[in-house]
Write a structure and sequence with these properties.
This protein is α/β, with parallel strands linked by helices. The protein folds into 3 domains: 30 residues; 249 residues, Aspartate Aminotransferase, domain 2; 134 residues, Aspartate Aminotransferase, domain 1, CATH 3.90.1150. Helix content is 36%, strand content 13%. The chain contains 15 helices and 14 strands. An 8-stranded mixed sheet has the order 1-9-8-5-4-2-3-13, sandwiched between helices. Helix 2 runs antiparallel to helix 10 and helix 4 packs across helix 9. It is flat, with a radius of gyration of 24 Å. 44% of the residues are buried. The chain binds pyridoxal-5'-phosphate. The site of pyridoxal-5'-phosphate has 14 residues, from helix 4 and helix 6.
């Protein structure tokens, strides 16, 4: 090693040592004070390792997706046992990438003759009405038509028994989120998709590590998405990814993620194919630089290596995170059983092993959800609603082109009566017991008082 490299290495070690020290001093967790400290529904759980890898990546200054992104993708490929895993900059981008891949002009060439055909404008995608907005948005952005199907109170997933009846002449795909980490009934859904010749996509953003019949959520469909936003099982600040299980999708998905290009060189690399100036593509002059050949209408959805460095450190904790989420979920479940006369607790299929994102609760008739939520929030316990509720009632979605299958009664109930609280690994037993005490206080007061309406209504025009 030359003296310069030696010096740089020594300085780096010094800096990374200081980062660890800094973490100990600056990121020390304050003690929990019931009633005063917030009990968040989610949050980043990290230690000096995340900060060290982030600093290491910053010092390397590669910036765009590079060595850490490669390592992260490899880890996730191993985790899922999938054909490929592509890192992107959010869960929303991951959903966009999956739908755009199925609609990409270059896809037909990559798929074998046996495969399902690519999607075309006007084709329908079956999806639940209770969902996240950017699970539906890429359907619309690709000029496809969502077919909304009702959900189930308790699992908060699509009602699997309604899917087959919802299929129409233009239906080509099913796209299901595993809501809050509780996997959908993948036995029914994969069977319907296979028998009726439909693409199957999973939104696994909330469900990293969940299984159904012992199989990981995210490995049933041809593709599945993940989010690495701080509320999710592992984080890199902003981030997401797709697991590719199906045949013939990798090249197109990579292309759509990376500007729509035909070239598959890693960032900063040239001539991976060895014939960079030897291609004849479309109507381009012969030998046109392959780096600038675009076989798809793409985006730039890549992450930075700094994000991937944080993500890589998080993967080392993934199993422990999932175990903690399951433990916390169980503690809440056992504690809330006492209030089952008032609350509908989560329903878990005996074939499912959720990797809980949160703990959903639906109030029974006579209990005012908003009053209970206010009681918890006043006690510093953070709550959230199930994302967009019945998405067709959201202002931005009122006039979208869509088909609604049957009625959406359960989805409306979820929108009106359901909320969730946290189970993330940052919650301690002390915090969870405080949450349970706070529920107990609420149900100790008169039922009449609980159900008096209190809303202030703001009309959005
Ligand atoms: C089910 C689901 N899909 C998609 C997303 C979008 O992920 P991101 O926030 O990373 O864009 C989320 C985010 O919470 C989600 O819960």
């Amino acid at each position: 090693m030359d003296p310069h490299t030696n010096k740089a290495q020594a300085l780096k070690e010094q800096i990374l040592g200081l980062v660890q020290e800094y973490y100990q001093v600056a990121h020390e967790k304050p003690a929990f004070v019931p009633g005063q400290s917030r009990v968040p529904y989610a949050g980043r759980v990290y230690d000096a390792r995340e900060m060290t890898l982030l600093a290491d990546s910053a010092l390397d200054f590669w910036l765009t997706a590079g060595p850490y992104a490669d390592r992260f993708e490899r880890r996730m490929r191993q985790f899922f046992g999938c054909r490929d895993f592509l890192l992107v900059n959010s869960g929303s981008s991951a959903n966009l990438l999956m739908l755009s891949t199925l609609c990409a002009p270059g896809l037909a060439r990559e798929l074998g003759g046996e495969s399902l055909p690519p999607l075309a404008p006007g084709d329908e995608v079956i999806t639940p009405a209770v969902t996240f907005p950017t699970t539906v948005a890429p359907i619309l952005q690709n000029r496809l038509v969502p077919v909304f199907v009702d959900c189930e109170v308790g699992t908060y997933n699509i009602n699997p028994r309604l899917i087959e009846d919802a299929i129409g002449p233009r239906t080509r795909a099913i796209f299901v989120p595993h809501t809050l980490g509780n996997p959908c009934d993948m036995e029914i859904i994969t069977e319907v998709a296979r028998r009726r010749g439909l693409w199957l996509l999973e939104d696994g953003c909330d469900a990293l590590g969940a299984t159904f019949n012992g199989q990981l959520a995210g490995t049933f469909g041809q593709m599945s998405s993940l989010s690495f936003y701080p509320a999710h099982h592992i984080t890199m600040g902003e981030g997401g990814g797709i697991a590719i299980n199906g045949f013939g999708l990798q090249k197109t998905a990579r292309s759509v993620r990376d500007w729509g290009r035909d070239c598959w060189c890693d960032p900063g690399k040239s001539n991976t194919c060895g014939t960079r100036f030897g291609w004849q593509c479309g109507e381009l002059p012969c030998g046109y630089d392959h780096k600038y050949v675009y076989s798809n209408i793409g985006y730039n959805l890549k992450v930075t290596d700094l994000q991937a460095a944080i993500g890589l450190a998080q993967t080392e904790k993934l199993e422990a995170f999932i175990a903690a989420r399951r433990r916390n979920f169980q503690r809440l479940f056992q504690g809330l059983l006492a209030h089952e006369d008032y609350l509908i607790l989560p329903k878990i299929d005996r074939r499912a092993n959720p990797s809980p994102f949160a703990f959903p609760i639906t109030v029974r008739p006579g209990v005012d959800r908003n009053r209970l939520v206010r009681h918890l929030e006043d006690a510093q316990i953070e709550t959230r609603l199930v994302f967009g509720g019945n998405i067709v009632r959201q202002p931005g979605f009122l006039n979208i082109e869509k088909r609604v299958h049957g009625d959406l009664t359960a989805s409306d109930t979820i929108m009106r009566d359901t909320f969730f609280i946290g189970v993330y690994p940052g919650l301690t037993a002390e915090m969870l017991d405080y949450v349970l005490d706070t529920f107990r206080d609420f149900f100790a007061v008169g039922r009449k008082q609980r159900s008096e309406p209190t809303q202030q209504v703001v009309t959005l025009i």
